[in-house]
Amino acid sequence: MARQETIEKLRTTLLRRRDALARSIRGDMKLLREYHSDASGDILDNAADTAQDEVNSRLLEVESNELRAIEGAIERLKDGTYGTCQDCGKPIPLRRLQAVPYVVDCIDCRRLAEKRSEPRAAGWSTPSGPYGYSAN
User: Fold this and answer.
1) How far apart are CA 53 and CA 45, in angstroms?
2) What value, to the nearest 5°, has the Cα angle with vertex 69 and ends 115 and 5?
3) Cβ contacts of residue 60 below 8 Å, gap of 6+?
4) How do strand 133-135 and strand 124-127 relate by DSSP bridges?
5) Helix, strand, coil distribution of the chain in percent, nearest 5
6) Of 52, 53, 63, which Cα lies nearest the Cα of 21?
7) Domain coordinates in residue numbering, the chain
8) Rounded to an integer, what distance in angstroms lies between the CA atom of residue 34 and that of residue 93?
9) Of 2, 5, 36, 119, which has the fewest CB atoms closer than 10 Å, so is most exposed?
10) Segments of the chain scoring below 50 in pLDDT
11) Domain 3-82 fold
């Protein structure tokens, strides 16, 4: 299958996922409002409601982040930059796009970014020396 055909299929996947997430987010928000309006009961009920409220809030946050990423991918489809790594400008392999259709970088650039963001052990500075790090 040609790259463009695969990208068209991914467009459909993104649009469907966007719609499903939007419905889910609306449901989550409705559920949170209901929890807040039914805030009556004893201390244990309120504690359980608070815990459930936190879980629902976190789920809403995760879904909202994914929705933003999908909307970004749809914009890139419109402007012709979809499937191009935002860091190096090379095409993102189709297998990576099929795994995560809203990804913005190739695997090499992602690994490099993750490596740069890894916390460094105390007492060690930037990479150098024969083993990659030198003492401060």
Assistant:
1) 12
2) 100
3) 25, 28, 29, 32
4) antiparallel
5) 65, 5, 30
6) 63
7) 3-82
8) 44
9) 119
10) 128-136
11) Four Helix Bundle (Hemerythrin (Met), subunit A) (1.20.120)
